[in-house]
Write a structure and sequence with these properties.
The chain is of the alpha/beta class. It has 19 helices and 13 strands. It starts with 13 loop residues before the first helix and ends with a helix.
Length: 437
């Protein structure tokens, strides 16, 4: 076990001596919002209670733990001592113990005899006392948490162990996907990117992941000789310098990693094909917009699930509602510790087309409506034909302000206004009932 350098003097204020509260926050959103994904470390949890075992199993499913290898075992400290007597210790051991202080410290001393020097040990105990905490720290314990614990507690404390405060924070990734083909997800993604870069003066890169049919180059009137296909085609040479060479500069703050939009190669990529590109972008750019095509492959699902924020763009009709519901169910199931996706309704108010009311659409999904973009073929057609964004084509149009506000919502600068709930018709009620099942 690792040793701890200095221990505070025991002679401190008696009020502070009575209890010790873990450094883990009780606010899940604050716990996990800015946490980096863990590196490829091995972690073993030895639990005594079903609650701790369940917390470990749920933590292993979190997207931030995708590269780490976490194993949950029963038996607590006694089982760990026996197990590591014949097996090498992992990078981190999490031990739950309901024993009294004397017994727990005795077990810890026995564990030290079979524990590798570089292994970090976290204790989950039920003794809320600062003197006992100091005894543990003197024995080289990395952290002590007062049980019972939750999955987000485990993720947060592991992230603290492997997070370097001197590192620059990871950039945020925002994945845009349409509930249905033609919903306008790419148009929304590109205009929001323009707003974030311009109104909020933040460096943004758009990564067009639709290699055969991507439109980002057309929308920004760019035809760079290299793009995202070159990045994923050279994983061994991929670094920030290579990306700088293949990024197309749209403005001082906005760059484009364009798709080739050719059919000379198939788009059935491996699940991990975009991992390296996204990682390099996160290390060098505050905001990365992932323009995910309306397709369902292993890489598309992984990209969406692993993004920091997700935006679902839909049109206000029944097929879009069904598809948005299916997307939402999967996202919520695979991202239990993350905030729900942002919902954008596009092309609202199309003449002669029956629509679901925006409020009813959002209510059926149990989501707040992040933005409602009216149908305006003249404005969007003009911008598209000129290779411009909406705010370039008509900066005074109210739709330009909608994109500005949406940029603030997805970057956390603006809160979504809650809408009043309304009664749904029988057709929409089945979607709501299914989502609550």
């Amino acid at each position: 076990m690792q040793t701890n350098p200095e221990i505070p003097d025991d002679h401190e204020n008696e009020d502070q001596e009575k209890t010790h509260t873990s450094l883990i926050s009780t606010d899940p959103a604050r716990d996990l919002k800015d946490i980096r994904p863990l590196p490829r470390v091995s972690i073993q949890i030895f639990a005594e209670t079903p609650e701790c075992m369940r917390a470990g199993e749920e933590a292993a499913k979190d997207r931030r733990m995708a590269r780490a290898h976490l194993k949950v075992l029963g038996g607590g400290m006694s089982a760990a001592i026996e197990y590591f007597g014949e097996a090498p210790t992992p990078n981190v051991i999490v031990l739950e113990s309901r024993a009294d202080p004397e017994t727990l410290l005795e077990h810890l001393d026995r564990l030290a005899d079979v524990c590798d020097p570089g292994t970090r040990v976290i204790i989950v105990g039920y003794i809320n006392d600062v003197r006992f905490y100091r005894d543990l720290i003197r024995r080289g314990i990395s952290e002590y948490m007062v049980g019972p614990i939750r999955d987000m507690d485990i993720i947060s404390i592991l992230a603290e162990l492997y997070g370097n405060p001197e590192d620059d924070p990871l950039g945020k990734t925002i994945a845009f996907i349409g509930a249905k083909g033609g919903a306008g997800s790419s148009t929304v993604a590109h205009n929001v990117s323009w707003s974030i870069a311009g109104k909020y003066e933040t460096d943004v890169v758009i990564a067009d992941l639709d290699l055969p049919f991507g439109t980002a180059g057309l929308d920004f009137n760019q035809d760079p000789p290299q793009g995202i296909a070159d990045a994923i085609g050279s994983p061994d040479r991929l670094d920030d310098q290579l990306l700088d060479r293949i990024l197309a500069k749209c403005t001082d703050k906005l760059s484009l990693l364009s798709a080739p939009a050719t059919l000379d190669r198939l788009a059935d990529h491996d699940e991990d094909c975009f991992d390296g590109v996204i990682k390099v972008l996160q290390e060098g750019v505050p905001i990365t917009i992932l323009d995910v095509p309306h397709t369902w492959t292993a890489w598309a699902r992984k990209t969406i699930v692993n993004a920091d924020e997700i935006v679902i763009t839909a049109m206000p009709d029944l097929p879009n509602l069904r598809n948005a519901k299916n997307l939402l169910d999967l996202i919520v199931a695979m991202r239990p510790n993350d905030s729900p996706p942002h919902l954008v309704l596009n092309q609202v108010g199309m003449p002669k087309k029956p629509e679901i009311k925006s409020q009813d659409f959002a209510d059926a999904l149990g989501l707040e409506l992040a933005a409602e973009i009216p149908f305006d073929p003249g404005l969007f057609g003009l911008a598209s034909n000129n290779g411009q964004m909406v705010s370039e084509a008509d900066s005074k149009n109210p739709i330009s302000e909608i994109f500005d506000k949406l940029g603030g919502v997805v970057t956390g600068r603006v809160e979504v206004k809650k809408v009043e709930k309304s009664l749904l018709g029988p057709l929409l009620a089945k979607f709501k009932a299914k989502s609550q099942a």
